[in-house]
Amino acid sequence: MHFELSSEQQMLVETVRRFVETELYPHEKMVEDTDDVPPELAAEIRAKSQALGLYAVNMPAEMGGGGLGTFDTTLMERELGRASYGLQMMIARPSNILRGCEGSQIEDYLLPTIRGDRHDCLAMTEPDAGSDVRSMRTFARRDGSDFVINGSKHFISHADVADFVILCAATGEAGGRKTISCFLVDFDTPGLTRRRGPKCVSHRGYHQCELIFEDCRVPASSLLGELDKGFDLMGQWLGSTRLQVATTSVGRGHRVLEMATQWAATRKQFGQAIGKFQGTGFKLADMKTELEAAELLTLRAAWKDDQGTMTDTDAAMAKLFASEALARVTDNALQIFGGMGLMDELPIERFWRDARVERIWDGTSEIQRHIISRALLRPLEA
């Protein structure tokens, strides 16, 4: 197996790293303090990323996207993961599920999103339907040539800066289980209300929203994919979101490790650098080892996706291990920094807070373990 990056891949990594350090890092403290990314700054970041060809890299080149495969996109996501989420999400990677657009949906949603003229968000989670997606209560009822939607969603990431939502709603029942369908719904549709959700301690500047649907009428042409097949459609693309969480966790972890190593090499106690004490040095060793293992697991899954052989288990293992490794890395880093690690003069406490959500969103650690364990036991009919 060949592990070395090609010259083109190395150039991609260096370009994104340089962009992150020069265009995103300088604004992190402001975003953290205000919990906001000013619209003019968001537009500036988008424009600069488009000029460098870093925008919509996950979309097909023939449609105006970057045409990168999963492995190369994962390399880019790793570098973007080093920066504040509120800033790096401005370098949009449209939801892969939009590749399911057909007919007029391509001109109305897919192509404008690739160009950066429109912005999407994805709504699955509800107050009573988190990990148990099929228990969602939001229902789309057929009414002639339309669907009428009622229900609510919460924890909908960056819906406040989106133009439309990719909505998952129940549309029927089969075999005693709800069937799910996906819809493309513009935010100016009558009957749809959007509002900011509770303030989150993780990823300030990257907001969660609540969506309320009250007799929200949409045409049948808004159906994305087949009726009652939304769960299958979501399943095709959920793996990529879990790889995104895994690789951004790796990128952020590497940044934290670099800062902790520098601190351990320069901070002196008892007449020597604290890194010379095993209590500190061994923490750094564990952090490095876990991040390398997480990265290999993630890149292996990304490579398999490009070959068409990635399984749900591959994505689950990467997401599980990388997100939990990041939690341990940030906690160890905070311990190495001591009291200063908890002060907002340094970003360590931010990394520590931000790491917590990675084990929850896009499938909790428990759900990932369930996926992995079922793959092991199902062939044995256990």
Give your account of this protein's structure:
This protein has 382 residues and is of the alpha+beta class. It contains 11 helices and 10 strands. It has helices spanning 7-24, 28-34, 39-51, 70-80, 85-88, 104-115, 230-266, 278-307, 312-337, 348-357, 365-377; strands spanning 120-123, 139-143, 146-157, 164-174, 177-186, 192-196, 208-219, 223-224, 268-269, 272-273. The chain has a 4-stranded mixed sheet with strand order 1-4-5-8. Strands 2-3-7-6 form a 4-stranded antiparallel sheet, with no helix packed on it. Strand 9 (268-269) and strand 10 (272-273) form a beta hairpin. The mean pLDDT is 95.
Short descriptors:
4-stranded antiparallel β-sheet; Butyryl-CoA Dehydrogenase, subunit A, domain 3; single chain; globular; 382 residues; Butyryl-Coa Dehydrogenase, subunit A, domain 1; 4-stranded mixed β-sheet; Butyryl-CoA Dehydrogenase, subunit A, domain 2; 10 strands; alpha+beta; 3 domains; 47% helix
Helix content: 40-55%
Hey, roughly how much beta strand do the residues contain? 15-25%
| Integer count of domains | 3
Mean model confidence by pLDDT: 95
